[in-house]
Amino acid sequence: xxxxxxxxxxxxxxxxxxxxxxxxxxxxxxxxxxxxxxxxxxxxxxxxxxxxxxxxxxxxxxxxxxxxxxxxxxxxxxxxxxxxxxxxxxxxxxxxxxxxxxxxxxxxxxxxxxxxxxxxxxxxxxxxxxxxxxxxxxxxxxxxxxxxxxxxxxxxxxxxxxxxxxxxxxxxxxxxxxxxxxxxxxxxxxxxxxxxxxxxxxxxxxxxxxxxxxxxxxxxxxxxxxxxxxxxxxxxxxxxxxxxxxxxxxxxxxxxxxxxxxxxxxxxxxxxxxxxxxxxxxxxxxxxxxxxxxxxxxxxxxxxxxxxxxxxxxxxxxxxxxxxxxxxxxxxxxxxxxxxxxxxxxxxxxxxxxxxxxxxxxxxxxxxxxxxxxxxxxxxxxxxxxxxxxxxxxxxxxxxxxxxxxxxxxxxxxxx
Length: 416
Prior knowledge:
The chain has one domain: Outer membrane efflux proteins (OEP) (Up-down Bundle). By secondary structure, it is an alpha+beta fold. It is built from 9 helices and 6 strands; from the N terminus they run αβααββαααβαββαα.
């Protein structure tokens, strides 16, 4: 017998152990990992590597192959009597291979690479901001599911109590202590409870499916959503990723300013050209011949009609715009935090009142229970008091969940 009890205990606890559990923090982590936008991190990194490789290639030798064949209507003729110099052919041919090597450009290439690095950080931070903003949506779904769970527990308690009361009423009817048909009223109420179960289950399933799609992980109606104990810390500085994004945008502007400053830097190139043609470099030799030239070239864009200066001034205005955006975001976020603090205080007040109301409702229901047993009141009157208690308990649960939601939203708004 003892062995049978042990085996039975194992089989009854296995489903509980196998039940899927999920926490609010896990949902936060999953949306960052599985949301489709998160894939752009790798794509942006790969794109940046290609852009940098293209920019760095300017430091490598540049090869150019040219070939041409021409026919001229006239050529240079040297009128020297008794000269053996032949006139050039009117059809001429040339093929050349040129090599150009950048030797100095004032750090323009390195400045361009720094701009690309700054742009990558800004783009990736934008993705982080978007993913972070999904947290409030997750909060709403998660705590709505928790509310459905708690409502289900309360409804089951009410159902159990009605079943017990139904047995008592039937016994009272049998012994003539309670009016006939009183049990029918309780049975009708139990049928209503079954409808409420169906509605709760339907709403919960819809919420779970939405959350499952958002976090990219399969969840079922049997998944247990753990109620988090959310704590908040007041009077702390904001730690939102949007603030980091504003700062990265400023750094991107600085890197662009440095790039503009390098635009008009002197540039020094080395070059070499080899070729084969008719004529070659010796214009007096009217035949196919190889040739080559080597040298260095200096280039300096001295005056650009203040184009770069105006671009720099435009970037400076962008920095001022970013300052105003940062100030606006900080102001609006602090306003939201203050509103959330007021919401938390309000709900705490509601919970205190709810507890007092429930204690009073329990006393009333206890009296109604005694009166029903003695046939003083009808089943309808008892159900009314039981429903009142159930609704007030449901209100308490709702306020507790709303309090946790308000705290979770406060932490998200603050960036905790």
